[in-house]
Write a structure and sequence with these properties.
The complex is a heterotrimer of chains A (313), B (441) and C (315). Chain A is mainly alpha-helical and 313 residues long. Chain A contains 14 helices and 4 strands. Chain B has 2 domains: 2-143 and 322-390, Periplasmic binding protein-like II (D-Maltodextrin-Binding Protein, domain 2, 3-Layer(aba) Sandwich), CATH 3.40.190; 145-320, D-Maltodextrin-Binding Protein, domain 2 (3-Layer(aba) Sandwich). In chain B, 47% of the residues lie in helices and 13% in strands. The radius of gyration of chain B is 22 Å and the shape is globular. Classes of the chains: A mainly alpha (313), B alpha/beta (441), C mainly alpha (315). The interface between A and C is large, with 112 and 118 residues.
Chain lengths: 313, 441, 315
Amino acid sequence: MSGYSITEPSAGQKWFAGTLVAIYALVTLLPLAWIVATSFKSPADSIAYPPKVIFDPTVEGYVNLFTTRTRIPADQVDSLPPPANFAEQIVRDQGMMITGPSRYGARFLNSVIIGFGSTFLSIFLGTLAAYAFSRFRVPLKDDLMFFILSTRMMPPIAVAIPIFLMFRSLGLSDTHLGMILLYTAVNISLAVWLLKGFIDEIPREYEEAALIDGYTRFQAFYKVVLPQAATGIASTAIFCLIFAWNEYAFAVLLTSGVAQTAPPFIPTIIGVGGQDWPAVAAGATLFLIPVVVFTVLLRKHLLRGITFGAVRK
Amino acid sequence: MKRAHMASVAAISLTAALASNAAQAENLTLCWAAWDPANALVELSKDFEKQSGHKMSFEFVPWPNFADRMLNELNSGGKLCDLMIGDSQWIGGSAENGHYVKLNDFFDANGIKMSDFVPATVTGYSEWPKNTPNYWALPAFGDVVGWTYRKDWFARPEIQSEFKAKYGRDLVAPQTFAELKDIAEFFQGREIDGKTVYGASIYTERGSEGITMGVMDVLYSFGFKYENPDKPYDMAGFVNSAGAVAGLEFYKSLYDCCVAPGTSNTYMGEGIDAYKSGQVAMQMNFAFTWPGFEVDPNVGGGKTGYLVNPAGPGGERFAQLGGQGISVVAYSEKQAAALEYIKWFAQPDVQAKWWSMGGFSCLRAVVEDPSFPTSQPYAQTFLDSMAVVKDFWAEPSYATLLQASQKRFHDYVVAGNGTAQEALDGLIADWSEVFEDDGKM
Amino acid sequence: MSESAIDRVAAATPAGIARRVRGLSDRAIAWLFVAPAIFLLLAVNIFPLIWTIRLSFTNYAANRPNRAVEWVGLRNYQRILTDADTWANMQTTAHFLVWTLFFQVLIGFTLAWLINRKFRGNDLVTTLIVMPMMLSPAVVGNFWTFLYQPQIGLINYAVEFVTGIPASSFSMLGPGGWARWAIVIVDTWMWTPFVMLICLAGLRSIPDYIYEAAEIDRASKWRQFWTITIPMVLPFLMLAVLFRGIENFKMFDLVVLLTGGGPGDETLLASIDLKREAFEKWRTGHSSAYAIILFVTVFGLASIYVKALNKVKER
């Protein structure tokens, strides 16, 4: 942040680096752009051969995503009132009528509750554990850390049947709480390991100074360490959210009518005679937005890294 | 058997309960795969809600996860589903393990006769053991592998004349697999409307059941049989008969010559996309896809012709069965209301409406109605196809048997390893191991 | 708030005594902080794991609830370990693991290093680059199958546009050996940002003064890179590799959607095979043993790796 530094890269270097990264960004975003573009295509255009780069945009995919529809028998077309709004008009053009909302909204909301709920819990428990591992002499520390990590090594399929039976007998099957606990358990290893790394880097001198000033350990933890660890917490939260938001295998197995999240729901969007690609793309596009917003909001923390201002060992 | 007996006792008492009071309003959950016909069933079921006062909920699972999810539900005694439209191959396991309620007494009490349904669907979706009058489901959705072809392309004069010049006969819908391959070769790589098109789309999917459904669809007509008709589970000389080997070689030759590049993992959805986007002249797919083609802007409105699975070299003609029956889950606490749904669903006028909405009814009163063949362009083809169906093993171990054939067929047809003879010999070895584990041989 | 009061009292008491009197002992705090995490892991991970271990010695089949469960000893393990297919699948997994890690580290570190040149708009472009990893594997698998489609997909047309090789002349997911690389490409596309972010955090944690000191010593940029940048970033990088390695060892949903393990068995990862055993063939006892074998493999590899990681950190 300092105005002048001998470690500041030259203008040429910056330009070169910027260009390379921009090229990478363009290439890597192409598949993503294709998904977004597909969401604005008509079903026929979405599977056009050869693929259509230029097309007439339509919001049909989004309308189909949010509604359930039924085909109007030919003899009833004339007896229907005129379409009330643009969505109704779009559906009418396909020879159908809207019969109600789809379940996408509810599934999306479930994802928000479960995704953010488990992220919060992972960070909460993870920060506490990481702090203890970083600062205290915990017996068998390395073994415990490795134990925590090892819980991530089990293939989900391997424990799926026991978890399924366990959840059912505990009444956690198809509940928000059950999914939050499950995702937290999966994420906690990542949270502890990443956060311990960040907390290790915070100089102990800060807390020691605080303790000498008469703070308790608790106070030192939340007044001194937590603000310093904000960066690490923010980036860890992003990783936890990304996992919980997108998890598919457990969600398919353990959720149905009540707590089903969006990932198992999106592939069930079926149009006439096949997968409704624009609606699936629309579902995927909208589903991406909260995570992107969350990332952008926490971007400062994610990118600033840790500044080792005052204390230099 | 003991369990079956108990289940039927339960059914009797339930039927009695049904008769005595109109049952309280329940919230029933019906489980099925997430596909086009499921949307139609939601619509159809609104009439049931109105008449009965029960509320219907639906749990639809994507095809790739349908079996995992639902079998796990059944195996663990789950109460999620009251009604299950389960895949035809599940019937053996679900009957033997008591997942489904036996329906014989219920059918008798309510005047539902299995002779009113298309015989192949009763055997395929309802009976276990096969060919015995033990019913575990009501045929709900008839389905069979058939072919669609681009009638509009076939009708073009320049294509017609070129085909005649090359093969010395008219270009018409193929009646034998040899003809089908000629036509596929003819279209392969051809320019139509400025685009390169390909001969055919056939099943090649590796993950679930795709390539097995496709290969079997062809093998039956080449003389393949699952077992010795006189000696169950005796497979040598039937699974790997000379005809079966020729059939598998034919499938590979069709894959090598006449499919669009890169279609090494095609099943129902990919077939639909390839056909609708105008890549292929002919397409192998289940009949459930046909109503969708009729209303499609690119291939609908008379551009598509429908075709019963062609005959093999010996003139034999069979087709792979798909489709499902509807069952009452034995773990449900709302069996009375669930049976009420089945009773409602079996009514001729409901079945007729089901057909009109794109649901392939299995009721003879519907499909044998004089107006049926002309009710839809694909109606007659569906009817003819259903008369020649065969199905994969419906044993409780069907999934293991299926995994073995998926591996053997994909390895030979798509990856090009080994010979057809080796693939089928290997398949017998795999299948024998499964039956030995089950104590059946 | 009463904090000011506490502060005043605290200021008046000698620090050591205050800590002992008002707060819990460090040891108690340590346990208090660690216990909830451990408890949750015991309940949701370890309990099912023990269950799985128990099942692995039986012939239990989840789809045969009525069949008597027999104790079969080590037979499941013996069957799996003597099956040539298991080893072929392990090799496929190794191929996937090694190459995804190689590309992700190479590209991820390079990107982080370039972004750390702090050009204008670097934070915007970083946010854009990380977007692929925010997608659901289910969505990624579905759409990449679509993108790889030679007739209606984008990839082959892009290749045709750049190289002139006709789009319909090759198929990334088909036979011919490409499929193994196609899955590496998708995973690399999706997860390189993860490695990049962690590398970036590492790079930014290097204090400027170290470089300034090196400048004063007239160390060349090249030398600075190898003696300062790499060693300082290495612990971060190794952590990223550890997590990606574990994830990719057990990954299956993406590849199932892309290839279903095909063509033939070319992309049949051990984890996909496991899923088939467990949920398609329903050989629960057998699949439990398979799961334990995979688990022990990762556990062993990871423990060696973590030892190395700790050594690097201590340096």
